[in-house]
Amino acid sequence: MATVGKVITCKAAVAWEPGKPLCIEEVEVAPPKAHEVRIKVVATGVCHTDWEYLFETGKGMKFRPFPLVLGHEAAGIVESTGPEVTRFSPGDKVIPLFLPYCGECERCLSPKTNHCKKNWTNMQAGVLADGTSRISCKGQQVYQFLGVSSFSQYTVVPDTSVAKIRSDAPLDKVCLLGCGVSTGYGAAINAGKVEKDSSCAVFGLGAVGLAAVMGCKVAMARRIIGVDINPNKFEKARQFGATDCINPRDYSKPIQEVVVEKTGGGVDYGLECVGSPAIMVGASFEIWHTLYNVFLVNLDLISFLLMGRTLKGTYFGGWKSVKDVPKLVDDYMNRKLKLDEFITEKLPLVQINKAFGLLKSGKSIRTVISLQDS
Ligand SMILES: NC(=O)c1ccc[n+]([C@@H]2O[C@H](COP(=O)([O-])OP(=O)(O)OC[C@H]3O[C@@H](n4cnc5c(N)ncnc54)[C@H](O)[C@@H]3O)[C@@H](O)[C@H]2O)c1
Ligand SMILES: [Zn+2]
Ligand SMILES: [Zn+2]
To answer: Phi and psi for 187 in degrees, rounded to 5?
Structure first.
């Protein structure tokens, strides 16, 4: 390919500073170094986390350096590979991943966690293994979001942060497996280990929440209660398997009390998919079905734990990224897993700020950005 070994000039949406809309700029993407892969990004979803890092930096979120190229839910094609890359070749269809899987570290070898340590520190700092980013704009280094940066027509990622997927997978759909859908689905299947005939409540019915509903349904939960302050999400939630949908704004009492009443004591699993610590406590403790429900209001967190409740977090739904994402792609191709239903809009890169607007106004579930269309 004519571009191999050369700097590629292409378009990217650059976040110059927190709290400001993204700017479409011409950027330079350097060739991949050792153990790196340069990817032509074909499609990327726009996740709540992208919005959060831009507009809520410093507000409970770790500070990320700017300028930055956001985007971490993508699919593309390998353009070229750096030295010592053995698993990828130009033309391979891939999903870049914000969570690495080296397959060698103690965490990759443990079935208890998916937190691979490879490149973790540098990726959190917005750079690759050598301490620099491969993207620059107007002579300035542009940091890479979680080591991915898919709001760019080309990007370079470590070879331990790329899943090779089957060649017949539609990239404009399977990009969603790079974050939101895998996270929510895995939250139910892997982290929650939702069981047959159980009852569940899912808080927040965005892409992550709907995927959690889908996971509960696949696990054959008997009752799946969807909770959202935006009732426009309910129709879709039912389509995904929710048996009841409730809006906290329709009640004067706390929503966890409503769930406890509706279920005659509480649910087996509460899945928090909003991103709110307050809801997390409510979802995890206050609606869980035990004899102690009547005392809930007066108990603190430690007491809930003492009474046998479990609070579990999940990063990327507990999946071992590189290893499991190709299997999720198979599940989609075999119609076990929905993806098309999450996509409410398709826009070109130049309209990326519109995608943020749709997400925040609650009008979209996922907007997929086509990187190569102008
Ligand atoms: N742990 C991970 O690996 C991981 C991965 C992806 C996303 N996330 C996080 O998951 C969260 C959801 O992401 P998303 O892309 O689905 O977001 P989204 O904005 O599409 O969906 C959030 C939903 O929550 C609803 N909501 C807001 N406040 C509510 C409340 N008080 N009660 C009930 N519902 C409420 C909104 O109406 C919306 O439908 C975000 O915080 C995101 O950062 C975590
Ligand atoms: Zn995400
Ligand atoms: Zn590892």
So the answer is: -60, -40
- The count of structural domains within the chain is 2
CA angle centred on 212, ends 211 and 215, rounded to 5°: 90
Query: Does any domain span residue 3?
Result: no
Q: How far is the CA of 217 from the centre of ligand 2 (A)?
A: 22
Q: Is the peptide bond before 67 cis (omega within 30 degrees of 0)?
A: yes
pLDDT band at 87 (very low <50, low <70, confident <90, very high): very high
- CB distance 275 to ligand 1 below 6 Å: yes
What is the residue-wise DSSP string for 212-223?
HHHHHHHTT-SE
**What residues make up the domain containing 352?**
8-179+316-370
Tell whether 168 and 54 lie within a shared domain. Answer: yes
Select from 349, 300, 259, 286 the least CA-distant residue to 41.
349
191 and 109 fall within a common domain = no
Q: Ligand 1: which of 49, 259, 271, 319 to mutate, most ligand atoms within 8 Å of CB?
A: 49
Question: Residue 211 C-alpha to ligand 1 middle, in angstroms?
Answer: 11
- Mean pLDDT throughout 46-66? 81
- Is 1 contained in some domain? no
Whether residues 291 and 334 fall in one domain: no
**Residue 283 neighbours by CB distance under 10 Å:** 27
CATH classification at residue 272? 3.40.50.720
212/142 same-domain check: no
* 156-209 pLDDT tens trace: 999 999 999 999 999 999 999 999 999 999 999 999 999 999 999 999 999 999
**DSSP H/E element including 370:** strand 366-370
Which of 306, 339, 358 is at the close of a domain?
306
Percent of the chain whose pLDDT exceeds 70? 91
The pLDDT of residue 245 is above 90: yes
Residue 38 lies in a domain: yes
236 touches ligand 1 (CB under 6 Å): no
Q: Which residues surround ligand 2, an ion (CB under 5 A)?
A: 47, 49, 179
Is 43 inside any structural domain? yes
- Cα of 203 vs centre of ligand 1, distance in Å, is 8
- pLDDT given at position 303: 75
